[in-house]
UniProtKB/TrEMBL annotation, chain A:
<dbReference type="GO" id="GO:0070628">
    <property type="term" value="F:proteasome binding"/>
</dbReference>
<keyword id="KW-0143">Chaperone</keyword>
<dbReference type="Pfam" id="PF16094">
    <property type="entry name" value="PAC1"/>
</dbReference>
<comment type="similarity">
    <text>Belongs to the PSMG1 family.</text>
</comment>
<dbReference type="InterPro" id="IPR016565">
    <property type="entry name" value="Proteasome_assmbl_chp_1"/>
</dbReference>
<keyword id="KW-0647">Proteasome</keyword>
<dbReference type="GO" id="GO:0005783">
    <property type="term" value="C:endoplasmic reticulum"/>
</dbReference>
<dbReference type="GO" id="GO:0000502">
    <property type="term" value="C:proteasome complex"/>
</dbReference>
<dbReference type="GO" id="GO:0080129">
    <property type="term" value="P:proteasome core complex assembly"/>
</dbReference>
Automatic annotation (TrEMBL), chain B:
<dbReference type="Pfam" id="PF09754">
    <property type="entry name" value="PAC2"/>
</dbReference>
<dbReference type="GO" id="GO:0005829">
    <property type="term" value="C:cytosol"/>
</dbReference>
<comment type="similarity">
    <text>Belongs to the PSMG2 family.</text>
</comment>
<dbReference type="InterPro" id="IPR016562">
    <property type="entry name" value="Proteasome_assmbl_chp_2_euk"/>
</dbReference>
<protein>
    <recommendedName>
        <fullName>Proteasome assembly chaperone 2</fullName>
    </recommendedName>
</protein>
<comment type="function">
    <text>Chaperone protein which promotes assembly of the 20S proteasome as part of a heterodimer with PSMG1. The PSMG1-PSMG2 heterodimer binds to the PSMA5 and PSMA7 proteasome subunits, promotes assembly of the proteasome alpha subunits into the heteroheptameric alpha ring and prevents alpha ring dimerization.</text>
</comment>
<dbReference type="InterPro" id="IPR019151">
    <property type="entry name" value="Proteasome_assmbl_chaperone_2"/>
</dbReference>
<keyword id="KW-0539">Nucleus</keyword>
<keyword id="KW-0597">Phosphoprotein</keyword>
Length: 279, 262
């Protein structure tokens, strides 16, 4: 497409690109494709204790699975829940995709998607995801993780970050309304609501959607709490928005209702380093 | 693949399946939305596959507050028993590397379900039409030999225009190269059609030349065109715009604007 000034722009289309996939593909191409696909596979690494029990056919006994997707949600768990030091790290998952750093160090990869288990109540499992999981890996991630969990009596709570720019509403959103929480749940979920349900035409995408889809077709009670925030990067006000979502789970999780400023500062400082370019 | 949402799996024997191809302007998907919402069809199951990018939302066809809270996913099947009609709605793009696998899954599901015929709604880039395609109506059809056998008379009566084959090298009159089928921007429509020809599946593709933008008029054109054939709605009804726009179509162009602007 050419514009008024003559420069040629490529036209964006929502349609899937027409590719000549029917053309004969040579063996080498096929091998490269296969190897790439293998490399993109989602890997789960459990602690020796957990992998032993999984190997013997015993799935993880789990009554509550709390999944935090995004920096705010993950930091919320770090500051309000995990700080009580009642949690054991039981595993992590690793994904390789176009946004993985070529020379990423082992520790940062291991901390991008971590599973924790409650010390006193081992049926409470928690997962923090801060890495990018590509579109073709989402389905697989949900399949693999839920394959390790006992489905009976399982309750899934997903906390997820979202930009308020992605929120559609007929009324103009004034600045003071963000951050706010919206929920979306599977038909097996029957608890009462802590916030408004996500209005059409808003949708949930990414890992939360993959988890919801999986839970819906497998009749697992699951709810996603999506926090719409107007701040890029973790901040304490946005994190606080998640509080009502977890106070509902009070029986299984001790929520540290007022974390010390030291804890919060530590969580927030990590992103400050990148944003001091113009100071 | 197909997972029933009811206690007993639905029977699709002798049903007609209508499904979209994710294509230019999402015209097929919009047309399917109109069918589901107008005929008040009920969801019978999900298309749960790794070929679709996951998404979820509340009921896109909600009519009141009570039925708004219901989880809907990227691939869902709806039916209406009176018309013996089943509709597959696809709400997310197909992963590019998995489009072939998706087509294979669909073809095998269509075969095992016993649908009497399948209609794929698609669209194609208007700017890539050749000279012969520029003339007349923007609507085209394609039909597999096995469906042509039973629907030849109906098609003759409708007087539809078949999708033209285009020369492989435009401008060159080489008798050795056969003109080929080309649906630019048509998503899996072409692949599904060729697969169905090979598998002897009764399938038709209805498509429309269009451009990206406000594609609601295109969706109406396509669904009316389909209705001429399938008679889902009484075409002699007095109201001109009898299709019901689903509630999820609002805010198509974004949120409300700040009142302080004026």
């Amino acid at each position: 497409m050419a514009t008024f000034f003559g420069e040629v722009l490529s036209v964006y289309s929502r349609a899937v690109e027409e590719d000549d996939e029917d053309l004969e593909e040579n063996e080498e191409d096929e091998q490269i494709r296969r190897e790439l696909e293998e490399k993109r596979e989602v890997q789960l690494h459990w602690s020796p204790e957990v992998s032993d029990s999984l190997r013997s056919g015993n799935k993880l006994q789990c009554s509550d699975f709390i999944l935090a997707v995004g920096y705010n949600a993950a930091s919320f768990l770090s500051a309000y829940v995990l700080s009580s030091s009642n949690w054991d790290k039981v595993g992590h998952s690793s994904v390789w995709n176009e946004r993985s750093r070529a020379l990423s160090d082992q520790s940062s990869e291991e901390s991008a998607c971590v599973f924790y288990r409650h010390k006193d109540n081992p049926s409470v499992l928690m997962c923090q995801v801060t890495c990018y999981i590509a579109e073709d890996q989402l389905f697989q991630w949900a399949e693999k993780v839920f394959d390790c969990l006992q489905h009976r009596g399982l309750n899934v709570t997903v906390l997820s970050d979202c930009s308020v720019a992605d929120y559609k509403t007929a009324d103009y959103l004034c600045g003071s309304s963000a951050p706010f929480l919206r929920s979306l749940h599977t038909s097996a979920f029957s608890n009462q609501h802590v916030c408004q349900s996500l209005e059409q035409p808003n949708i949930v995408t990414g890992l939360s959607a993959a988890v919801l889809n999986h839970c819906q077709v497998h009749h697992i009670a699951a709810v996603v709490y999506q926090c719409y925030s107007d701040v890029i990067g973790p901040d304490s006000v946005t994190m606080e928005t998640y509080k009502p979502a977890l106070t509902k789970l009070g029986r299984s999780i001790q929520l540290d209702t007022s974390p010390s400023t030291d804890v919060l500062r530590k969580v927030i400082r990590t992103t400050d380093i990148q944003s001091n370019l113009y100071i | 693949m197909f997972i029933s949402s009811q206690t007993s799996p639905p029977s699709f024997k002798d049903y007609t399946l209508v499904m979209p191809a994710v294509a230019v302007g999402n015209v097929g998907q919009l047309a399917v939305d109109l069918i589901v919402s107008t005929l008040n069809m009920s969801r019978v199951g999900f298309l749960h596959t790794d070929c679709l990018i996951p998404m979820a939302g509340n009921n896109p066809y909600a009519t009141c507050k009570e039925d708004a809270e219901e989880l809907h996913t990227a691939g869902e099947v709806y039916t209406t028993a009176e018309l013996k009609l089943a509709v597959l709605q696809i709400r997310a793009p197909i992963l590019q590397t998995k489009s072939k696998k998706f087509r294979q899954l669909l073809v095998s599901w269509i075969k095992t379900s016993g649908f009497s015929r399948t209609v794929v709604l698609s669209s194609s880039h208007a700017y890539q039409r050749d000279d012969q395609q520029l003339q007349g109506t923007p609507l085209r059809y394609l039909i597999t030999p096995s469906l042509l056998k039973v629907s030849a008379d109906a098609l003759k009566e409708l007087g539809w225009k078949e999708m033209e084959r285009v020369p492989a090298y435009p401008g060159l009159t080489d008798t050795n190269t056969e003109p080929r089928l080309c649906i630019p921007g048509g998503g899996i429509a072409k692949g599904l059609y060729t697969d169905s020809c090979a598998e002897d599946l009764p399938l038709a593709v209805l498509l429309l030349f269009c451009s990206e933008g406000d594609n609601i008029p295109d969706a109406f054109a396509l669904v009316n065109h389909l209705n001429d054939w399938l008679h889902m709605l009484d075409s002699h009804s007095p109201e001109p715009n009898k299709w019901k726009i689903p509630s999820s179509w609002n805010l198509l162009f974004g949120s409300g604007i700040p009142p302080a602007l004026y």
